[in-house]
Design a protein that fits this description.
By secondary structure, the protein is of the alpha/beta class. It has 3 domains: 149 residues, FAD/NAD(P)-binding domain (3-Layer(bba) Sandwich); 122 residues, Polyamine Oxidase, Chain A, domain 2 (Alpha-Beta Complex); 93 residues, Guanine Nucleotide Dissociation Inhibitor, domain 1. The protein contains 16 helices and 25 strands. The chain has a 7-stranded mixed beta sheet with strand order 10-9-20-21-22-19-23. Strands 1-2-15-14-13-17 form a 6-stranded mixed beta sheet, with no helix packed on it. The model has no long low-confidence stretch (mean pLDDT 97). It comes from Labedella populi.
Length: 460
Amino acid sequence: MVDSRRSEQGTALDVDVVIVGAGASGLTAATRLRAAGHSVAVLEARERVGGRLWTETIDGALLELGGQWVSPDQAALIETVEELGLETYSRYREGDSVYANAAGEVTRFTGELFPVDAATQREMERLIDVLDGLTAEIGATEPWAHAKAAELDRISWSEWLTQQTDDVEARDNIALFIAEAMLTKPSHSFSALQAILMAASAGSFSHLVDADYILDKRVAGGLQQVPIKLAERLGDAVHLSAPVRRLAWSGDSVTAYADGITVTARRAVVAVPPNLYSRIAFEPPLPRRQQQMHQHLSLGLVIKVHAVYETPFWRESGLSGTAFSPYQLVHEAYDNTNHGDPRGTLVGFVSDEKADAVFALPAEERKRRILGSLAAYYGPQALEPVVYYESDWASEEWTRGAYAASFDLGGLSRYGAHQRTPVGPIHWSCSDLAAEGYQHVDGAIRIGRATADEIAASLG
């Protein structure tokens, strides 16, 4: 039962559990706790629910500004989508993909591996086999506990690849699948162990290489429908525009002080990315271990580019819309046309240091260069979209990066085992802390469920 009252400071609530953050993880935890018979209050800083899921209409075009894809291994997300009555559809993938090499030469191809010379292809296949073996051996659940963890966590992803092969193009292409495409950080800035965790969280490195697998389906109307519908079921338990400024806690009680609302509870769930923990004043302060650990976690940087055209013109040329190159400004791009929309949409990504460089330019010059990179893949028609939009999550006050937090060199083996350790009545829940489904909505849901079950068991 929720005890609610008014005061000069705003609404005051007494509940069993207060959840900070109305993303997929926080809303999943709230839903599961309520189903177990516990009262909840969800406090969200933004004026909307969804966190890093955001579907918006821009200049008449429906765009997925944040996460959007569903892959076959994401059982928790698939189950939630079905339970909420949402429909999915397959990403368009008929026709040839394109690859641009270091010389700017564009080649059409089919299948998973890029069209490189035979020696480079053999090296890529060998590296994928090595990484699949390490991924299976180390796993996603406790990579820090493996005998090789410290060794692999002290060497950067780029240096590990350099030790494996002298083939520069093979290294660049393999690096792409983790650095630019997933962690959105330069490959010298995170460890080989962090790269292996990224692959293990998706089932294998081979899954990351296979775009048709990892980017399989989309949700009709946008993936933000998941948190929206979860929030609708929670009703007035969800409070928007209520950033939590302070968490005062003791052994078995916690009070959240947010704008316009104060919530006292037996447990709290902090369901925001780790880079935002410091936005909350903890009283008393968090233990030394957590204080140090949180300083070694950071989000990457990526621009998600949306370009909408009168028609999906690339299909007329027999192209699927899928494009890759570690040498282009836009390192990957896909046909992102909405189900039933006669117009065509391309989505492309510019990450890490390349994003730094173009963010230093005036907006029109940045747009010109990004569209020029798309035109390298698809031809001059790509230069003239009817709608153009850049999702810049690093400038979002309550996100500050994309797609997820990862450790710096040595951080995963040093701190990984403690990421989800509760502090008194305070629990942690977000996709950044997931094993399977790490940095994806699937991971957010998995962690939300696990956190709720842990709290429900402790409350009795």
